[in-house]
Amino acid sequence: MNPVFMAQWMKDKRKPYLVLLFIGLSIIATLIFGNVDSMGRTTVPVFSSETGDVKVEEKWVQLLNNHDSFEFVVMDEEKAREQVKEGKSDVALRVMENDYRLVTASEMPIVHLIEQHVLQVFTEEAHLAAVAGDIDTIDLRNEVEEYMDSPPIKVQTQSLNGGDISNYDMGMQLLFAFTLFVAMFTIGFKVNGITADKVSGVWNRLILSPVSKTKMYVGHLLYSFCVGFIQISLVFLIFNYIIGYDLGNLAMILTIAAFFALSMVSVAMLITGVVKTPEQFYMVYPSIIPIIPVVSGVYMLPGTITSPILQFIGDIFPLSHGVEAMIDVALFNAGWNDILLPIAFMMLIGVLAMGIGINMVERRK
Amino acid sequence: MLETVKLSKTFKEKKAVEEIELYLHAGESVGLLGPNGAGKSTTISMISSLMKPTSGDVKLDGKSIIKNPSEIRKVLGVVPQEIALYEELSAYENLKFFGKIYHVAKEVLENRIQEVLEMVGLKDRQKELVKTFSGGMKRRVNIAAALLHKPKILILDEPTVGIDPQSRNHILETVRKLNEMHGTTILYTSHYMKEVEQLCNRVYIMDHGRVVASGTKTELLSILSTEDTIQIQLSKKSDSLLNTIKAIEHVRRVDETTQGIRIISKKGSNILSDLVHAAEKEGIQIIHFQMEVPSLEDVFLHLTGKTLRD
Ligand SMILES: Nc1ncnc2c1ncn2[C@@H]1O[C@H](COP(=O)(O)OP(=O)(O)O)[C@@H](O)[C@H]1O
Ligand SMILES: [Mg+2]
Question: Who contacts A100 (Cβ-Cβ below 8 Å, separation ≥6)?
């Protein structure tokens, strides 16, 4: 076994707290923020601006209440606002004849989900209203529904493998997002061991020894990879077998996790090439990493981020590709062929970042 | 065995080492002495192949090591100025790690670890983590880690900086034994004159990146053979007296020291009566008068105009 690898393991064996803490963190974060389905239906208070406009309220509540996870309940305005203020509800909805406003104080992913649902219902209704002209939309709706039961052309939506599209499971996406996000920290802190060795002088001792440079890097990087990969795998196994999420094809999920860990090791190596001391790394790395999931959009529903610039920046990092591939496997039964592209992206990022990173570290001397 | 030829290193504008010429014969113990920033560590880095020289060469048995550093790495043990150890591991684990790194054969590694631990006197504390050690103990492990592969040449970069006298003596003793009993060639860097006097056959004195003098202790002291060093203590401080003394014939240098005034004058020039005269004129008494036997410290002062400790 590579002695550099073993030495890193010996160091951590005495103090496994960081990895254990991060595993715990991934689980807790997923349970707290990803409870979209598992915690039952979320209640959303609904009120109208003109007090007592019962007709408007009822019309919308009826239309809105076709979702499994949300329950829209009419309330008076004061009470609804109080619920939001006290945090009993994440969001309240104010409806008008043809428009709505969300009242919220939170950035929780569930708010985005509700917003999306409400938007969809209102847009659909607006379309119908435009077509119907003066006729009551309810009649039109019934007509359309009848018509759709026997349409002249039938368009069928299918998931990748031909099954029905299931409801989008935001909880699952957040599980992947949080777990990979937290693992980025673990991996970075381990890769930082190279800088630590350089500063302490251990690296010079290694250079003077018969051990090759390749072995020195491999020892450190392989170790960082293993710790990151094991952390991700443990969280997924816990969710799959203990908490009761169905991650689908585990072998594929873990393969994606491995490629993600690999390319993240490279990204950390690239950042190592920029900093001079381990302390600088501890400052720079944690200020860059939290931006990645935000621009990658992994906390939001797919398609939420539309700015091509942000999308491009998100695509530079492995996170978006990793989460995307995992979702395809877990929710849409993707096969090996379907995840080849995201894996190829992660590999590409990995090779480039590693090449540049090692070059910069070597040139520094 | 080992020599440098016009070895130079320039960092950007800064000339850290300039045309250094050193040589080490097999079995010798050589000191490299100089104040902080003199360029000792830079010189060592180049000799040990960790740093490429800007110009000049390092030769091992007549062959340049710059292109092919593997030869020197085989025979060299380097004790760096910093504690290059994993502090989260025990002394034993560190040595085991470096032993494997240095390809010490499995069958002999265990014995060898115990041998070097014995040498630096840490056998009974090998299970403890390095980070719990005192500065002196860390330095001893730092040395032990460089001995595992039985290097023919051992280079130590200020191995006794800032440690307790007990650890220091232990280290000096270890180095002396390595040289005398095991025939290890030693290059010992320090800014403590006493250590180098005690330990080394020959000394190079460095300042501002250059070798300003070299030789055995007697050779270096002979630099001062044309001078007397006189130490006097006065009843009162006086700048005008200082100037009067400077003006006395044959006086070459006058420095204020913590004990009073140090005067360097031409050998045999009896300036005592002139001194007494000058002091009397100012109404100052000479409380204490002493002719000093010159030390290497004085040689250094003579060559560089400063003491080693600044
Ligand atoms: N990597 C470096 N970059 C720039 N200047 C350096 C570097 N290393 C050393 N120096 C400078 O070179 C000079 C000699 O340093 P050094 O060899 O460490 O001296 P010593 O070991 O005798 O204290 C110092 O002035 C130091 O500031
Ligand atoms: Mg130094």
Answer: A60, A93, A94, A118, A122
Tell me if B86 and A11 make a contact (CB, 8 A cut-off).
yes
B122-153 per-residue burial string, b: 16 or more CB within 10 A, e: under 16: beebbeeebeebeebbbbbbbbbbbbbbbbbb
Give the CATH number, domain containing residue B143: 3.40.50.300
| Chain B CB contacts of A205 below 8 Å | 78, 80, 84, 98, 101, 145-146
Query: Which residue on chain B is closest to A216 by alpha carbon?
Result: B101
B201-220 pLDDT per residue, tens? 999 999 999 998 899 888 88
Distance CA A187, CA A286 (A): 12
Partners of A365 on chain B (C-beta within 8 Å) are 51
Query: Of A84, A114, A149, which one is at a domain's C-terminal end?
Result: A149
Q: How many helices (H) and strands (E) does chain A have?
A: 16, 4
Residue B73 to residue A210, Cβ atoms within 8 A: yes
Instruction: Give the number of the atom of ligand 1 that is nearest the alpha carbon of residue B206.
Output: 22
For B167-204, the pLDDT digits (tens) are 899 999 999 999 999 999 999 999 888 888 889 999 99
Examine the domain organization and report whether B68 and B201 are in the same domain: yes
Domain that holds residue A90: 42-149
Beta bridge partners of B138: none
SS3 A277: coil
Record: contact A14-B88, CB cut-off 8 A:
yes
Q: What is the C-alpha to C-alpha distance for residues A179 and A235, in angstroms, rounded to an integer?
A: 7
Q: Taking 50 as the threshold, does the pLDDT of residue A166 lie above it?
A: no
Question: What is the spatial distance between Cα A89 and Cα A83, in angstroms, rounded to a whole number?
Answer: 6
**Ligand whose nearest atom lies closest to the CA of B40:** 1
Domain ranges, residue B24 = 2-220
CB atoms within 10 A of CB B242: 17
Domain membership of residue B298 (yes or no) is no
What backbone phi and psi angles, to 5 degrees, belong to B204? -110, 130
CATH of the domain at A108: 3.40.190
- The total domain count for chain B is 2
pLDDT band at A161 (very low <50, low <70, confident <90, very high): very low
Pairwise CA distance, residues A343 & A286, whole Å: 25
Asked whether residue B303 is assigned to any structural domain, the reply reads: no
